[in-house]
Amino acid sequence: QVQLVESGGGSVQAGGSLRLSCTASKFVFFNCMGWFRQAPGKEREGVAAIDSAGRTTYADSVKGRFTISRDNAQNNLYLQMNSLKPEDTAMYYCAADRRPRVGHWHVRYMKKADFSYWGQGTQVTVSS
């Protein structure tokens, strides 16, 4: 069974930056990879996703501040988060799937069921 492990979370002040990483326990070709987040009392929401060709999609709330990237050779996924805001505070989850995306290519339409593999999450806390 493939496991995804996130790292890079932490506590920062508003305006700061963090870089999240996600590593798979063994090499598997993932067609689509993404980052989701869940704040206390809120539903899990898609933040950003990227396919094997490098096509990306972002939630409107993070566009221009976050950058998703992947290293196909190492099977790693990254999320560079700049200009962080208190509302970015959440548990961030890495997700991946071997199937090609079927449906609208926008993270707002991506659901938990669209991804077969999930990490345990890494906490991001942004203070004002």
Describe the structure.
The protein has 128 residues and is mostly beta strands. 0% of the residues lie in helices and 47% in strands. Strands 2, 4, 5, 6, 9, 10 and 11 form a 7-stranded mixed sheet that branches. It has a 4-stranded antiparallel sheet with strand order 1-3-8-7, with no helix packed on it. Strand 7 and strand 8 form a beta hairpin. The protein starts with a strand and ends with a strand. The mean pLDDT is 95.
Features:
single chain, 128 residues, mainly beta, four-stranded antiparallel beta sheet, 11 strands, globular
Task: Explain briefly what this protein structure is.
The chain is mostly beta strands and 128 residues long. The protein is 0% helix and 47% strand.
* First-to-last CA distance: 40 Å
Largest sheet: 7 strands, mixed
Q: How much of the sequence is in beta strands?
A: over 45%
Topology, number of strands: 11
What gyration radius follows from the Cα positions, in whole Å? Answer: 13 Å
Element-by-element helix/strand order: EEEEEEEEEEE
What are the segments in which pLDDT stays under 50 over at least 5 consecutive residues? none
Average per-residue pLDDT, rounded, comes to 95
- Structural class per helix/strand content? mainly beta
Number of helices: 0
Shape label: globular
- Fraction of residues in helix: under 10%
